[in-house]
Amino acid sequence: MFKLENVSYAYDTEDASGQGGSRRQALCGVSLQIKKGEWWAILGANGSGKSTLARHLNGLLLPTAGRVEVCGREVRDYARVQDLRRLVGIVFQNPDNQIVGNSVEEDVAFGLENLGTARPVMRRRIGEVLQMVGLSGRETVDPAALSGGQKQRLAIAGALAMQPQALILDEATSMLDPVGQAEVLDLLQKLHEDGLTVVMITHNMSEVLLADKVAVMSEGRLMMTGTPAEIFAKSDELQKWHIELPLITQLGNKLGVAGCTDLDGLLQKLEEMAED
Amino acid sequence: MGGKRGGIRLGAYYPVQSPVHGLDPRAKLLGMLAFLTGIFWVDEFWVFGLVYAFGFGVLWLAKIPPTKALAAVRGLIFLLAVTCAINMLVTPGEQVLWEWEFLTLTMEGIERSLLMLLRLVALISFSGLLTFTTTPIELADGMESLLLPFKRWGLPAHEFAMMMTIALRFVPILLAEADKLMKAQRSRGGDLASGSVMKRMKTLVAMVVPLLFNALKRADDLAIAMEARAYTGGEGRVSLRELRWAGRDTLALIVVLGFVAFMVVSRWL
Ligand SMILES: Nc1ncnc2c1ncn2[C@@H]1O[C@H](COP(=O)(O)OP(=O)(O)OP(=O)(O)O)[C@@H](O)[C@H]1O
Ligand SMILES: [Mg+2]
Fold it and tell me: Quick check: A62 contacting B, CB < 8 Å?
């Protein structure tokens, strides 16, 4: 689905005097392969380059060095950017800053309108995706009247309407209450079961556990990849990169059982150890 | 300023179903433009009688209470009275009724200023016909469609409409934010309505800076989100909302244009 080879990216920044010139290196030689249908979590401290990485996955940013392939094709080789954007949807952090439409159906339609989709097809897709995200019957509601979780589900619906192969979530649940978070995660699990590739940037360790694979970023570099259990076993390194593990995992690591993520798992492993 | 989310309504849309509400916004835009222009041509009391009859007739068709249309006039009543009085006292004429220094009250002056008053009140109360019966979104779509032919001369028709749509979504959010900041300031003892000039300035700055900062952040976020959803401008875009010009729109426009023609011609009757 995604193949990154030695990707580097530097933002042009203006220095204090207002004259440009300095550049800020946000990604340094990142290589990563994400297969179709996988669920990845991306971990990293603030400013470690996670969002910058996410924006490379649908051509919002083009690497200053290295290559990015999406669905087997280099991002620069897509004739129309729209063809790339429809393959990979992105949901951002603040629900209020990514809803464009003045009603639920208009917002879902936004991407389709940009692709020049015929109206009858638009209508059908709107019906389908609102059903998927559980917002059927809300077509004409003002998005401002929705809850945080509903707004993010609406944003997901807007991406799904374009029938993407992958969905990127850039801290998409961080501004939601626990109910809203659960709504969004349930939906993602359902979509993932149907074959959607999910890349989730998060600071929330319980969300990381939903992923098949985890990538850890620090200062623009990809530090390591692995399953959540593998990653969680390396608490010393994670600490160095300013990533806080769940208490249970920290406790397990201290007791010599690496990578435990819940209490039951920890107890089971401790019992096994006692038996040996 | 109501801080309630989604509770702030922009524009004056009066949500009922009526034959006027159901018209194509382009018909209403063109009709209104013609009607308002026509009002400037009217120069006889009896024609104004017909203009008001026509205007209130359409208001009745649109199921809008006349008091609603006249509410705008009420707000401007002082301004209207002063303008009218000044006009009355400085217009020269033959039949002088009263004179003092440079002020003269003449029959012609009274007639002129009353006609002007009728014209202003008609303009103010009937221009609401468009915004009462048409949602801002419909207006934006209608304007985009009408301005499209001028695109080849560089008129950004689509961008205007997109701007309007986005403003509709974000102005209530920004208003709610301003409301919140104002309350926060007040709880800290800052108040825009009292205190020394210096203190008020400080309060204002403490409100405007975060407001501006947040607005810029929102604009930035929204631009990226729109781009991520394949937005590249108006080219090749198909809007979900579709404007449909029907027979009744042609009919309505013909009736209005016919009446406007009469208003213009009435000058020579
Ligand atoms: N538009 C920009 N212009 C200049 N520098 C930027 C820009 N966006 C990000 N940066 C810088 O690039 C680096 C990586 O930023 P990025 O937003 O990718 O981090 P992040 O891991 O997503 O952080 P967070 O957890 O805060 O979202 C940071 O040092 C940041 O200051
Ligand atoms: Mg980020």
Answer: no
